[in-house]
Structure formats: structure tokens, C-alpha cells
Predict the structure.
Amino acid sequence: TVSLFILPACRDSLTVKVEVCKGEPSVVLPCQYSQKLEEIVTVKWSSFDLDPNTVHQRQEADDLRGQNEIFKGRTSMAPLALDSGDFSLTLSEPQVSDSGVYICSLRHETEEIMVSDVQLIVTVYRVEVDSGEESVLLPFKTAVCLPGKSKVTWRTHDSKVVHINSLNFQHQQHRQFKDRTEMKKPGKSRDFSLILKKPTDKDTGTYICTVCDYWSENISTKKQVLLNVK
């Protein structure tokens, strides 16, 4: 039987709230441990809303055999985490469904000590604009390393094509957005933001930008933006 002990500190003082927008490349769940580790222990990140509840586990190396499938390939810790006491977890491609409380704990034999807990809130980026404005910007900048040539596609949640970064995309563009969209050339800035001209209440909804390799169409990054035209 594994027992759980909370370090001597106020419960509220342990809780950290982290907010991130869906579409960001990653988010860091912080956890610092100041005491020196005298024995070999296991650092475990858990979410007790899930079954199995293991998010990530590290002893001398990562041990992901019991990891919940929804985190497969999306979690990492610093290589020298146990030496430095920095047990922070990086979660890539955060989803709204990832929202919840994450526990960072130390395990040794039958004891488990909670170091900290993190409340993660993943939201959809929101933009509000008044109907009648000249234009509205749906922002998307990324730090993700991209292939040499990328295809950028903006769509609505129901798959209407809003804009594609090619010269002859007009035949694919939905008539609702004809002559009303514009993108800068991303270049080195990796700015895929979309300008939507003359927004109306009919434009209210979720917009999804997908960036993929031009040739293979493997997705490099994506972002959702919720537009509300008042």
C-alpha cells in the first residue's frame, strides 16, 4: 500500500495555477524541490481525474510504462531533474481536455510525498470586435521549428476554408470570406495571423489555423481562435 504524505506547508501555498491557450506549442507545470535527495527516489506526476493516473515518471531515467495514453509522446522533464531539484514537467500541445489538477510527488519504497500541485487551465484564445469595424486580427505566432516550405490553412470549426497561403486558393475559399481575408508572408517571424475584413455577427465562431509541411502535409502546429463579433 502506498501512503501519501503532504510536506509541512499550507495547502493553498502549494497550489500553482497555470493558464495557457490551446494551440500553444507547450506549457510548463512548475515544481521545485529544495532539499537534497539522499536516496534514489521516483518523481511522479499524476492526475487523479484519470485512470491510470500517471502523467510522467522519472527515476534514474524516464519510466513511462504506466503512463496514461493521452500523454504519450507529450511529456518531458529536464535531463538532470533529480540532481537540480527542478521537477517541472513540460506538456506539449496542450488541449482543453488537459485542464485539471496535476500532482508532483516523490516516491520511495512505500511512501509518497507530495511536493506541489498545479492547476492547469487550457482555454481557447478569444477575440472580440464590434460589427462594423474595418477589420479584426486573429493572432497566431509560433516558436515551433517549421519545415522549409509550409502550407497554412485557416478554417472554421465546420471546415469552411477561410484562407490558404497560396496564390490560387480562391476556388477553395468559402464564399462567406471572399475578398475579406489577408495574411502577411510569415518569413522568419513565423506569424500566421489572419486579418478578417468587415467582420459581421455571421463571422462569430471558432477558427482553426493549421500549419503543415507543404509536400507531406504532416501537421507542424495548429491553433484555435474564438471570434465574437458583437
In short: The chain has two helices and 17 strands.
